[in-house]
Each structure stands twice: as structure tokens, then as C-alpha cells.
Amino acid sequence: MAGIEEVARLAGVSTATVSRALSGNVHVSPATRSKVEAAALELDYVVSSNASSLASGRTRNIAVVVPFLARWFFSSVLEGVQSALLRHGYDLTLYNLSGDADERHSVFEHFLLRQRVDAVIAISLELTEAEVKRLHTLAKPLVGIGGPISGVRTLSIDDTLIARLATEHLISLGHTEIAHIGGSPEFDLDFHMSTNRRLGYESALEAAGLAADPASFAPADFTIHGGYHAAKQLLGAPQGRPTAVFASSDEMAIGAILAARDLGLVVPRDVSIVGVDDHDLSDFFGLTTVAQFPRGQGEMAVEILMEELKPTTEAAPAAPALPYELIVRSSTAVPPA
Amino acid sequence: MAGIEEVARLAGVSTATVSRALSGNVHVSPATRSKVEAAALELDYVVSSNASSLASGRTRNIAVVVPFLARWFFSSVLEGVQSALLRHGYDLTLYNLSGDADERHSVFEHFLLRQRVDAVIAISLELTEAEVKRLHTLAKPLVGIGGPISGVRTLSIDDTLIARLATEHLISLGHTEIAHIGGSPEFDLDFHMSTNRRLGYESALEAAGLAADPASFAPADFTIHGGYHAAKQLLGAPQGRPTAVFASSDEMAIGAILAARDLGLVVPRDVSIVGVDDHDLSDFFGLTTVAQFPRGQGEMAVEILMEELKPTTEAAPAAPALPYELIVRSSTAVPPA
DNA sequence: CTGAAAGCGCTAACAA
DNA sequence: TTGTTAGCGCTTTCAG
């Protein structure tokens, strides 16, 4: 735990020079720099981030706020954020809001205000106005991932387009009876993501001259379990079952595949199924899906933030559109004759 | 962003008193305390953690190091750690080592040394001697979860006992042909966890007078996919298939259930399957399993640390044994007649 | 129980 | 390019 003073002494320079040489931002003569670096290495010197933060006002630490941890999408985004941050020399302080309301409240009223972070990344969070205001009093850059927060720059995939693409894939195979498993209305967590995907589905149908029968919609909770039950309802309907199902998430789509199997239906011969995500398990189940790339989304959020934190930057950089891609596997085919 | 000075002025006391009143550790007269609290509330005052840390040497921040993020066990432990930490007013700084070796190196040589944390929790990490030494030079409390690190206090489940319990469940149902899907040897990540579970399985067999045939073992990688392929091998063996399978993780067990189905076997009529974990999906698949409770493990690690960080505490508190429990669902039954 | 004052370890003007 | 110096905002002796 050597301090900057000892390094300065060993290198034969002042502490200010050590600071400059090690931070790399300011000009220092190459000779001095290497002397300092050698001394630092020899003494195992690592700056105290607290002292540095206090003096400079920069913490090199980013807060990441998530609504869940143990779900594929969130942990994948987090992975991307983490590794990008590490590359930039930043720490990641994690706040998970899946606890009770008090917990959430204290995160916004207390934890985030401790001046411990330079910026915050909010993943798929529906923030209340009070919360957004709180964050704004922080006067720190804030970027959201996964759905528009009013007044906050957000990386967001185009849910309508994604859903439309998935549905069009089914239509192009010849399906006309296409059911949809989407989020139940409570899922406002996801900012109308559910609604937008449903709208995309409906618009694809309409564009093909097909009717969007309300009976072809089954709500679920984005889990395999939920998708399974929703699919059972849809596929077991006595008045004739759909030949294809578009599920708003891969987990629900996998549930649907399992439900079809349990009903004795063969996928894709009897029923085609598409999801959204490209979840870890999707390849295993041969699920056709519209991939989004959560790791990449996390990394992108970090790049935007880094850009914004550079003292040189003026305007906040714009958020580019997020990529997505139809991946056709073995869960979709032409409808039964 | 009011400072302590303003609070002091508003409350009509000195900054020292504000500090004392708000930290709560030292004695302050009730009247003064409430005056200070009112002033702090009015000004929306929140201490600057950097200044506080620098002055006191305590950061109220814990580092958590994980080898993966997007896996059920790790994200569940992390969830437990996070919520317990929040309750105690601590921040959580996350380091995920799933990147390359350089990343890992820089975490240990750089990030963890910045004096940003009071302690570190290492989840299922096989640390090299150099890494442990590094951490010890930190002179910070360190607790591991999930497997013994030499010289580090670790919360660890008894893998041998767990495996034995699962196997005994099968034996007590009357099974004598019991196969095992375990970790492949490379999985040293998990500290001989794989080996220990295999030993537990074998010892249960021996105790029942059954032979542990090496042909009844299939290695896999702890995923559904891996479990599926391993189970296919086991259940498709032409020289007679086992009537039961013990898998070292629920994900592998679920893979085995799916493999059995694909082979036209009915679980549990034709083959019984047990796992370990009580994964999120296990209930859905009706999987009998030995539950471990990762959230609880995370919380426990935090409690131990908090105890240790209390200035009053002398000896490091002992780590209690971790609970586990056999949960019988519908994937196990007596063997076919 | 409370106040005054000396730092915690570093960075950033300002000079030289 | 480098050194000097004054803090960053709080905590903690040490007095009173």
C-alpha cells in the first residue's frame, strides 16, 4: 500500500508529476514517465480511488441499475456492460431493484446520490418521474437500455419491427392462422414492449390481408412456464388451432414448443414457432428467432457513456439503432397441407 | 448537493457533530441529533462516500468477483449478496471474470487494489496462489462461496453428502442400475465439486452393495445441452440402459429428461432422473432434486462479512454449514418391473 | 456531549 | 515540462 509520496521519492520527482505521469492525460517527458512507471511498479503502487475521486471529481465508476438479475436478458446486458467498463478502466457498481419498494426507494434516494459514480446505466427500467428527476439532480450522464424513458437517452430495439419481421417470416412460409403469445398487460416494466410487439404482429397480418383475431392472442409472463400454458390454450382450442405461433420471447417460444410436444404435435410439421431474443437455449431447441444482442447493447451503452464523459465532448452522442436479425432454425416450416 | 458544512450551519452545530449524528455510532444528544437530521433532510444532504472513505478508511463497498454472470447459480447468489448488502447500506462493485485472462489479471492486479472496497466475496472461484496472496496484501476480509480456496474462509455445501442423498433416494426406490452425469474433468473451476459429487454417488452405491460401473458415468458441461447428449449416450447404450440417472446439476438433469423423451422413454416410468440445485426450471419439469439455496448463500456471506467488519468483532466468525434439501417431484419413481 | 483543527491521498491551478 | 501549494468533503483525535 505504497502512497504517491513514496513513488515520488523513489522516482526523484514531485507527487504532482507522478500523478500526471500515471494518469497519462497531461504531457510528461518520456524519461520522467518511465522513471515514474518503474517506481510505481516496484512499489506496487495503485492509486487510491477515493483520494483521486475526491480531488478530481471523477470516480471512474458507473452505476448499473437493473430490475432483475437472474434473467437471461439482464445478465447478458450486464455482462456486456461489465466487460466494456473493465476495458476502459471503470468499476461497475450494481443496483438490483428486484427487492421490495423500500429497497428501490433507498437506491434512488440514497445510494445513487453518494457521489460514488460518474454516470448511470438503467436497464429496462420504467422510471417514475420522481426517479428521473432525482437522477437529473445528480447532473450525471444517464443512459437507458431497452425502452424509452421520458427525457433520457435510451438504446432501444424497434419492437414493432422485430415482431413484424418474425410474423412476416411465418406469412412468407404460407401461414395464415398465426397466433401470438405476448406479455400480459401488467408487464409495464417493459415499457409497452409487449404492446409494441403485438402491434408489429398485427401490422404484418394486416399488410398480408389477414385478420388479427383477438382469440389468437394469449398473454404470458415471459417465462417458459408461462409460454407453455399460453400455448396449451392456443393449440388446444377446439375451434381449430393455429398453424403457427409467434411468441414475444424465446423463453415463451420454448414453452410453446414443449406444449406442442405434450399435445402430440410435431414442430414444425404441425405447428411452426418463432421467438424473439436468441436466448442461450434457443439453439438447442432449434428455435427460429429474431436475435437481439444484449451483450452488444451493454457494450454500446458503455461506449456512448465514455464518449460523453470525455472532457472534450460537447453534445451528447446519438444512440445508433440496435441490430437484430432473423435466425431461421428448425421450428418453422410451411403449414401442413 | 449540499455539503456537511451547510447542514452544520442550518442545524447550528459544528460539522463534527453533524458527522457524528448522522453516522450514529457515537453518542450525540437526542435533541442535537434530531436537529441535524431535520437539517439534512431539508437540504437533501447525502454524504459524499469518497470524502467519507478517504477520511475514515471505510468505504461501505464490497467487491464481488464471479466467474460467470449469465448462469442461474451465479446470478442467484449475486441477487442474495446484493439485497443483503443493500440492507446494510453497502454498495456492491461487481467483477466478472468470464472475459480473457488479461481481464482477470487486471482485476486482481489493479481494480481490487484501488482501495475502493472494504472486503471481497469470491463466488465459485478457483484462485491461484498469486491471486490469493494479492488479496491478502489487501488486508481485507475475504469470503468465498462454493468451494474451498486454500487459506480462505469459504461457505461451501457438502457436495459429497448432496450427491449421496440424491443417489440414496434412487436406491431407496429400488433402483440398482443408476448412471451418473457429472462434470468433465476440465471443470476445475468448480473445485473438485464434480469429483466430490461423483464420490458421493459412488459411496452411496457401495454402501448399498452396488458396483459403480465406469460405463455408467458420462461427463458433461453443466448445461441442458450437455446433459442431453450425455443422457443420450447413457440411455441409448445397447448393452442395457440404466433405470435411473443422477445428474450433478439440474440443467443437466433437464437435458436428460429431454433426451429420454426424445428416445421415446417416459419419465419416471422408464427412467428416473434426479438433479442438484432446484433451478428455476426444475419445478416446471417436475424434476426431483436436491435443492441448494444460492440466494441464501449470498446473504449468508454478507452477514459473515458484516460481522467481521464490525470494529468490535475479534475472531473471524465461523461459517455455518449450508443447508440443502431433497425435493421429490415427478421425475423419480420405482424402477420398471 | 460538542467544537476546533489536523489530516485522509490525491489532483489541479499557478508559477517557475 | 515540472514543482509548489491549496484544497476535494469528510472523520477523528484532542480539548473543553
Automatic annotation (TrEMBL), chains A, B:
Keywords per UniProt: DNA-binding, Transcription, Transcription regulation
Domain HTH lacI-type per the UniProt entry, residue ranges: 2-56
GO molecular function, one term: transcription cis-regulatory region binding
InterPro entries named among the record's database cross-references: HTH_LacI, LacI/GalR-like_sensor, Lambda_DNA-bd_dom_sf, Peripla_BP_I
Pfam families, per database record: LacI (PF00356), Peripla_BP_3 (PF13377)
Taxonomy, superkingdom: Bacteria
SMART domains per UniProt: HTH_LACI
Cross-referenced PANTHER family: HTH-TYPE TRANSCRIPTIONAL REGULATOR GALS, LACI-RELATED TRANSCRIPTIONAL REPRESSOR
Name of the protein described by the UniProt record: LacI family transcriptional regulator
Source organism of this protein record: Orlajensenia flava
